[in-house]
């Protein structure tokens, strides 16, 4: 995964997870995309910044996914997904990517 920042992987996983679920109408398939990107990001967070940071960022990733649902009721689905993806990307960049 050399060269791809974890911020891009994590944000992409949130966006792709929602996109896959929406366009295929199969939520579990979206969950697979979300989980796969999350696993790749977590592995890289651990490698770049250690276990504690990886656990914290993984928690943020899951919280972003969960938080996007109530936020979507207020601002819409896509804006919500992009907002939480941006938040996770920023946290990932600050905690792991900028060190590289």
TrEMBL record:
Transmembrane parts of this sequence: 52-71, 77-96
Keywords for the protein's UniProt record, in alphabetical order: Membrane, Transmembrane, Transmembrane helix
Name this polypeptide is given: Integral membrane protein
Organism of derivation: Streptomyces celluloflavus
Phylogenetic placement of the source organism: Bacteria, Bacillati, Actinomycetota, Actinomycetes, Kitasatosporales
């Amino acid at each position: 995964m050399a060269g791809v920042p974890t911020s891009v992987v994590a944000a992409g996983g949130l966006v792709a997870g929602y996109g896959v679920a929406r366009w295929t109408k199969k939520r579990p398939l979206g969950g697979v995309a979300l989980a796969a990107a999350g696993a790749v990001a977590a592995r890289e967070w651990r490698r770049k910044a250690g276990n504690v940071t990886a656990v914290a960022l993984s928690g943020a990733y899951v919280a972003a996914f969960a938080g996007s649902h109530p936020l979507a009721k207020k601002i819409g689905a896509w804006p919500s997904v992009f907002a939480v993806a941006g938040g996770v990307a920023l946290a990932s960049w600050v905690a792991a990517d900028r060190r590289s």
